[in-house]
Amino acid sequence: MAIQRPKGTQDLLPGTVEQWQYLEETIRKVCRDYGYEEIRTPIFEATELFQRGVGQTTDIVKKEMYTFLDKGDRSMTLRPEGTASVCRAYVEDKLYGQSQPVKLYYSGPMFRYERPQSGRFRQFHQFGVEVLGADQPIVDAEVICLVWDLYQRLGLKGLEVHLNSVGCPTCRAAHREQLQRFLTTRKSELCQDCQERYERNPLRILDCKNPNCQAVTEGAPTTLDTLCDDCRSHFEKVLSLLSGAGVAYRVDPRLVRGLDYYTKTAFEVMVEEIGAQSAICGGGRYDGLVEEIGGPATPGIGFAMGLERVLAALQVQGKFPDPKPKLFAMLIALGDKAQNEGFTMMNALRGKGVPVRMDLLGRSLKAQLKAANREGAEFALILGEEELERQVLLLRDLNSGEQTEVPLSKAIEVIYMKHRRGV
Ligand code: HAM
């Protein structure tokens, strides 16, 4: 039986890859404009990084990690997300010694053992941004504006930023107490996972997708109810900056992200048209994470977006630009000698940056002309035995059908100039 790719993964074939490249190029441009620099971290890390960083009680760490022992008996994990790795690099590579804040972005595959469905994969791709070393609310606003601006440049419509503040360790303790008190009499109605969460991390009960748990938590106190003065004024300032920037947001007091490191601002961007997995981006502030993994106390904030989901939204909304023709000229050489001469000419033109191709299948003149048209070539450069004898090249304009003769000695220069002029 033929071997198949693993469940929840995709082959990205030519035709689709161009859409990825378009998205990745737009991302790079926005990051450059905002002054973010790229970081590339390993695809696998010590398992402990995610256990400590993402949190022992999260679904990611409990159920979804691709963990294995390497040949040296070390526990390794394919990265399920990028934030913990960026913070590890910030500490290990001493980026805290550079001028702050450090503004980084990354793009690459992530791995989670989830139940595959539309918009949910086991190998998926994230573009993410992390800003380390700045605690001001203007940073939160800038990061959200970057996401918003990217989606505007891509032409996406119908988006909404859902925003919440999950507070800091001080006000979270007050919330925890109030929430446990609220749930105390109905604890037995919660699902098994939430009964465990009740002791270890009750906030995550608000995020449970089980309809029973959602019914039990209706009217439960939210983190917004217990914010301390510092967290409240931080949140209000973020909201006022976003309003000024024209970002369409909605305060959602029940937004609880699925990772444990968040403090203060948490957000997600939703687009309804792509189905149940409507979150195309998620992020927030994580002021305790760098310290948690052994670095100096450092505030941080960032987000990550699922590229598969952004591409699905672009697809549904018909927002991909028309593909640009990739071929300038097809060099059609007929006969052995002409093929030798043509091959030299093609390589000289390619060396000058002119996209030229030759037939690789030994096809007839007619079939080669057909292929040139199909691939959107501007010109056919025809070189037969007879042209070779007369030391000329036929230059056929495939748009107008007009055909001229160029002396072989001048052909490279003439074609090069036409390409430069965009003819
Ligand atoms: P996350 O919410 O787990 O956050 O993932 C961010 C985004 O990645 C989601 O909104 C979704 O678009 C995409 N995503 C997640 N899982 C899958 C999957 N199985 N298949 C397809 N797409 C998926 C984080 O990962 C945080 N590290 C974000 C962050 C950065 N927070 C602060 N800085």
UniProtKB/TrEMBL annotation:
PROSITE patterns on file: AA_TRNA_LIGASE_II
Binding annotation for L-histidine: E81, G82, T83, R112, Q126, E130, R257, Y261, Y262
Enzyme class: ligase
InterPro entries: aa-tRNA-synth_II, aa-tRNA-synth_II/BPL/LPL, Anticodon-bd, Anticodon-bd_dom_sf, His-tRNA-ligase, HisRS-like_core, HisRS/HisZ, HisRS_anticodon
This protein's UniProt keywords: Aminoacyl-tRNA synthetase, ATP-binding, Cytoplasm, Ligase, Nucleotide-binding, Protein biosynthesis
Domain Aminoacyl-transfer RNA synthetases class-II family profile: 8-355
Organism: Desulfosporosinus acididurans
Oligomeric and partner information: Homodimer.
Main location: cytoplasm
Originating gene: hisS
Annotated family: Belongs to the class-II aminoacyl-tRNA synthetase family.
Record-level GO BP terms: histidyl-tRNA aminoacylation
GO cellular component, one term: cytoplasm
An example molecular function term from Gene Ontology annotations: histidine-tRNA ligase activity
Designated name of the protein: Histidine--tRNA ligase
EC number: 6.1.1.21
Domain of life: Bacteria
Enzymatic reactions: tRNA(His) + L-histidine + ATP = L-histidyl-tRNA(His) + AMP + diphosphate + H(+)
Cellular location(s): Cytoplasm
